[in-house]
Amino acid sequence: MKTYLNPLFLILLLLITSSYVNASVSLAQKEKKIYPMGKKIFHKKCDSKMDLQKYESIEELAHDIKDKKLCKPLKQKQFDALCLYLFEVKRLEDTNEVSKKIIISKDDKCPICGMYVYKYPKWISQIYYNEKYFSFDGVKDMMKYYFEYREGITEMLVRDYYSLKVLDARDAYFVVGSDVYGPMGNEFISFEKENEAKAFSIDHKGMNVMKFEDINIEEVNKIDE
């Protein structure tokens, strides 16, 4: 059963998180000041057992921290830093502790579009050739590369859209043609469970749910039309 937030409270949450979430804050600023502040606050003033994997947005997380009193009272700047650390860092760390790992550097660029992939952690996918790997800012670009250079691939990794768990791409389900866009527009949205993929497709006007083996180069090219 879905719960709906008061519109005025949603506006408040957006204002609460806006000071650090806006585009003017660089990754360097976050890593140097904001994330360390958030981490320190989390360990000193919050419930360490909070389940971060259930949150699909930073606004939902901020709402629960305040509404369920998951942390001691915080100043505005502290609260902003905490939310960013938990959603952008701690949540991904917790996911990777129990699954495969996607490991990148700040220099990793998508070989298809040239974008730095670290800016889009939720969308990153990877192809491995023994010890060599390539990172992509979405499954669509990964599949474009796959159909050109599939020989010698040892592993292909994607993230479940909801849990962010790292999956073997060959075992995942992909929603095509939904109204949810990735960094490069229309995208293959990946899921671990077929029922979640189908539910997402219904909720977001998807055209199809596909397994890896059902995707061909025509489907990949068509998604950009």
What descriptive keywords fit this protein?
single chain; 225 residues; alpha+beta; four-stranded antiparallel sheet; three-stranded antiparallel sheet; 13% strand; disordered N terminus
Short recap of the structure:
By secondary structure, this protein is of the alpha+beta class. It is 41% helix and 13% strand. A hairpin with a 6-residue loop joins strand 3 (155-159) and strand 4 (166-168).
Written overview of the protein:
The protein is α+β, with helices and mostly antiparallel strands and about 220 residues long. The chain is about 40% helix and about 15% strand. The chain is built from seven helices and seven strands; from the N terminus they run ααααββαββββαβα. It has helices spanning about 5-20, 25-45, 60-65, 75-95, 140-150, 195-205, 215-220, and strands spanning about 125-130, 130-135, 155-160, 165-170, 175, 190, 210. It has a four-stranded antiparallel beta sheet. It has a three-stranded antiparallel beta sheet with strand order 6-5-7, with helices on one face. α1 packs across α3. The relative contact order is 0.10. The model is unreliable at about 1-5 and about 5-25 (pLDDT under 50).
